[in-house]
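User: Second chain of the day. Same drill as before.
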Amino acid sequence: MSLFQHARFLVSAAKPHDFPPERGPELAFAGRSNVGKSSAINALAGRKRLAFFSKTPGRTQTINFFDLGDQARLADLPGYGYATAPQALRASWDALIGGYLTGRRSLAVVVVLMDARRPLTANDRRFLEWLRPVGARRLVLLSKSDKLSRAEGAKVLANTRAALDKAAMTADVMLFSSKNAENVAQARALLESWLREPVGT
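Assistant: Same format as last time:
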């Protein structure tokens, strides 16, 4: 049975000392505000309201943890790059996300969602730079791919892979749509295979 089918909300953490004790491999989801991160989590879990989303960018200010059965955990990180948020609030988000990425030993996989129509923005690249020293697998999901034609999608996919290679940023890349389910099953299978790998592989 899918790990995502066992997903249940555990706790919200506004500061690093609120993080739950580490147990098993952890999968983190990150992305710019309003990129479709919550919709992607819901699609992967086959649920409508496991992860909540808002039409107001930057609303989520905590890391929301979910148990994936007894074997793994999922961490939904606050959206990054919301330019009109107050500087102090943006700084607190940076400290929260940075503290999680650098201090969470159980972090095994990071999924970065980017809008397929505007991938690799300055904020996306900044986040990927944060990930350089993190010893976790990376999957870039180019979300909202349903808004692109097949030819446009293929071009964006190739260009994104080439740009990541040029920047020496190792990551798998997929087109993804929670609306028409493009690559939902494929992404789920890949993530679960990574989470089930023995420690140290």
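Confidence is low (pLDDT under 50) at residues 53-58.

User: Great, on to the next one.
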